[in-house]
Design a protein that fits this description.
By secondary structure, this protein is mainly alpha-helical. The chain contains five helices and no strands.
């Protein structure tokens, strides 16, 4: 993928989310509680799909290590920290496999 396309997609994503935060009114309190609970199940579903290969077996060891590293960091509720945990988990699992 071209670097310019990646930068353009990142800019579009950031600007659209920033505009929503700046210009839309806050949701009602009951809806806010629901919205705060959505990311964890959605990301868990996406992560689960990455741990199973198309033939139904488990993914390779480094991928499982990355998932474990990210999972260990989830109580901190920070995406950059979870990503760092995943990278460390991947590196450690790659070293030992």
């Amino acid at each position: 993928m071209n670097l310019l396309i990646v930068v353009a997609l990142a800019a579009i994503t950031y600007v659209s989310r920033a505009a929503a935060v700046l210009f839309l009114p806050p949701p009602p309190p009951r809806l806010q509680v629901l919205l705060e609970r959505i990311p964890a199940p959605v990301f868990a579903g996406l992560a689960t799909l990455s741990l199973i290969t198309p033939n139904g077996s488990l993914a390779d060891t480094p991928t499982l290590g990355a998932a474990l590293g990210g999972l260990v960091m989830t109580p901190l509720r920070s995406l950059p920290i979870c990503l760092a945990g995943g990278l460390v988990g991947y590196a450690v699992a790659s070293f030992f496999s």
